[in-house]
Automatic annotation (TrEMBL):
Enzyme Commission number(s) of this protein: 4.2.1.20
Pathway the protein takes part in: Amino-acid biosynthesis; L-tryptophan biosynthesis; L-tryptophan from chorismate: step 5/5
Name recorded for this polypeptide: tryptophan synthase
Pfam families hit by this protein: PALP (PF00291)
Enzyme superclass (EC): lyase
Entry's family note: Belongs to the TrpB family.
Key words of the record: Amino-acid biosynthesis, Aromatic amino acid biosynthesis, Lyase, Pyridoxal phosphate, Tryptophan biosynthesis
InterPro entries: Trp_synth_b-like, Trp_synth_beta/beta-like, TrpB-like_PALP, TrpB-like_PALP_sf
Amino-acid biosynthesis listed as a keyword: yes
Subunit structure: Tetramer of two alpha and two beta chains.
Organism, as annotated: Faecalicatena contorta
Ranges of residues in domain Tryptophan synthase beta chain-like PALP: 82-419
Required cofactor names: pyridoxal 5'-phosphate
Length: 461
C-alpha cells in the first residue's frame, strides 16, 4: 500500500478489538523461572499463592502453556470505554527530524488514569469480584496504578484500599484526590494501621516511605482481612498477559495496512507495557516466523537490565513476597530522585528477564535530561504531553530515527507511548529551569544493593 494512504491515526473498530490475550510464555522455549517460597526455596504452589492473590489470577500466573486466554465479556465492555487505543503515525515528528524512518506509536494515555495500567487493573478487579471478594489492597508510588485500580474497582463496586508512599501522598495531592473521587481509601505509608508499618515507624521515625514498604503493608492487610486479596500493577506474568491487549491491537492495526515494524521500543519499569506491546511480535520471532529488533529503555538511575544481575531476589523491601528470578539491583536498592516514578522498581518482569537473557531483546539506559529534551521535542510537534516514563521510549525512537537519517535507511519504528504527563509538571518545571540533575549510580552504589540479594546454592555466587 502506498505510504500516503496511511492515516495519521489508525483506529480499529470495536468489533476488531482483541477477544483474547496472548500469553508469550507459551512460545518460549526457556520458560521464565518460577516464583519461589522464600522459606523453603521451593516453587510457590497454587495454594500458597492463593492466600495473597485471586484464584483465577494465580492460574494465569502459573500458565506457561496456553497461548490464548479469552478476555471475559465484562472486561471487553470496560475496555470499550477507552479502547481501541489509536496507533499514530508520527508524521510531524518525522518531518521535524527530517528522517526517512517511519515512526509509529501506540498511545495508551487516553483515559483518566493517564496510562496503560487500566488494562490490567480492570482484569484483576474483575477476577476478584468473580471470586466473591469484598475488596483488594495495593500500593502506589506516584499514583498511576492506584488511580487505575480505583477506577476499575468503582466500576465493579469493589472496595479498594491503596497504600500510597507517604512523600507522594503529601507532595502529589492530585492523584490522591482522583483515587478518592473513585471511592478508594488512600493511606499514607508507612502507617499505624499495620504491624509492619508500626515496626518501620518505630525503627525509622519520620520516614517518608518507599514502594517496598507500601507493598508490605498492602500485603499484610490483604492477608489479614477476610474477603480481601492483594493486587500488583506490574512485574507479574499475569500483568504482562493483560497488557498484551496493547500489542495485539497494535499488530492488528499494522496488519490492516500491511505495515511491518523493524524496531519495537518501550520504556521498562517492571516491564508490563513493554512486555504487552512486544508480545505478539515476540511470539512470531520465537516461532521463527518473523524477525524484529526489540529495545527496552530504562533510566540510567535505575538500570536493572543494563547493569543488574540475573538472580532470585525479593520483590519488596519488607521481604514478605515470593522470590522472583529477574534482572535486579537488589530489593534494598534505593534509586535517587528520578522523575519517572513508574520506572523506579529495582527488578524486572521474569518473562522479560528470561527473553533478555536469551538474547531476544536489547536494553538501553538513558539519562533524565535527555529524556525531557525528547519529551519536549515530541510534545511540540505531536501535541501530546508525554509522561516522563513514556519519554524514555520517545528518546530512543528519536535516536533510532536519527541513525536512519545518517544511513538513509527507511526503517519502520514502533514505540509505546504509555501515558500523559499532566501530573508531572514539577519535573517539567525543573527541566525548564535547568535544575534537573542526571544521576548515575556508581559501581559501589550498585554493590550495596547486590549485597542484599539472598545467597543460596545456585543463586548469586
Ligand atoms: C507505571 C508506568 C510505566 C512503567 O511500568 P511498566 O510496568 O514497566 O510498564 C510506564 N509508563 C507509565 C505512564 C506508567 O504509569
Amino acid at each position: 500500500m502506498s505510504e500516503n494512504k496511511i492515516p495519521y491515526k489508525i483506529y480499529l473498530e470495536e468489533s476488531e478489538m482483541p477477544r483474547e490475550w496472548y500469553n508469550v510464555r507459551a512460545d518460549m522455549k526457556n520458560k521464565p523461572a518460577p516464583l519461589l517460597n522464600p522459606g523453603t526455596l521451593q516453587p510457590m504452589t497454587e495454594e500458597e499463592l492463593s492466600v495473597v492473590f485471586c484464584e483465577e489470577l494465580v492460574k494465569q500466573e502459573l500458565d506457561n502453556d496456553n497461548s490464548l486466554i479469552e478476555i471475559p465479556e465484562k472486561i471487553r465492555d470496560f475496555y470499550k470505554m477507552y479502547r481501541p487505543a489509536p496507533l499514530v503515525r508520527a508524521y510531524c515528528l518525522e518531518e521535524k527530524l527530517q528522517t526517512p524512518a517511519k515512526i509509529y506509536y501506540k498511545f495508551e494515555g487516553n483515559n483518566t488514569s493517564g496510562s496503560h495500567k487500566l488494562n490490567s487493573a480492570i482484569a484483576q478487579a474483575y477476577y476478584a469480584k468473580e471470586q466473591g471478594l469484598k475488596g483488594v489492597t495495593t500500593e502506589t508510588g506516584a499514583g498511576q496504578w492506584g488511580t487505575a485500580l480505583s477506577m476499575a474497582c468503582s466500576y465493579l463496586e469493589l472496595d479498594c484500599k491503596v497504600y500510597m508512599v507517604k512523600c507522594s501522598y503529601e507532595q502529589k495531592p492530585f492523584r490522591r484526590e482522583v483515587m478518592r473521587t473513585y471511592g478508594a481509601s488512600v493511606t499514607p505509608s508507612p502507617s499505624e494501621s499495620t504491624e509492619v508499618g508500626k515496626k518501620i515507624l518505630a525503627e525509622h521515625p519520620g520516614t517518608t516511605g518507599s514502594l517496598g514498604c507500601a507493598i508490605s503493608e498492602a500485603v499484610e492487610v490483604a492477608t489479614k482481612t477476610e474477603g480481601y486479596r492483594y493486587v500488583l500493577g506490574s512485574v507479574l506474568n499475569q500483568v504482562l498477559l493483560h497488557q498484551s491487549v496493547i500489542g495485539v491491537e497494535a499488530k492488528a492495526a499494522m496488519d490492516k495496512y500491511g505495515i511491518k515494524p523493524d524496531i519495537i521500543i518501550g520504556c521498562a519499569g517492571g516491564g508490563s507495557n513493554l512486555g504487552g506491546l512486544i508480545s505478539p511480535f515476540m511470539g512470531e520471532k520465537l516461532r521463527g516466523e518473523a524477525d524484529y529488533q526489540f529495545i527496552a529503555v530504562e533510566p540510567a538511575s535505575c538500570p536493572s537490565l543494563t547493569r543488574g544481575v540475573y538472580a532470585y531476589d525479593f520483590c519488596d523491601t519488607g521481604m514478605v513476597c515470593p522470590l522472583a528470578k529477574m534482572y535486579t539491583l537488589g530489593s534494598g536498592f534505593i534509586p535517587s530522585a528520578n522523575h519517572a516514578g513508574g520506572l523506579r522498581y529495582h527488578g524486572m518482569s521474569s518473562t522479560l528477564s528470561q527473553l533478555y537473557h536469551d538474547g531476544y531483546m536489547e536494553a538501553r539506559s538513558v539519562e533524565q535530561t535527555s529524556v525531557f529534551e525528547a519529551a519536549e521535542q515530541f510534545a511540540r510537534v505531536e501535541g501530546i504531553l508525554p509522561a516522563p516514563e513514556s519519554s524514555h521510549a520517545i528518546k530512543v525512537a528519536i535516536d533510532e530515527a536519527l541513525k536512519c537519517k545518517e544511513t538513509g535507511e527507511e526503517k519502520t519504528i514502533l514505540f509505546g507511548l504509555t501515558g500523559t504527563g499532566y501530573f508531572d509538571m514539577v519535573a517539567y518545571e525543573k527541566f525548564h529551569d535547568g535544575v534537573m540533575e542526571d544521576y548515575v549510580p556508581t559501581d559501589a552504589d550498585l554493590k550495596a544493593g547486590f549485597d542484599g540479594i539472598p545467597r543460596f546454592p545456585g543463586n548469586m555466587k
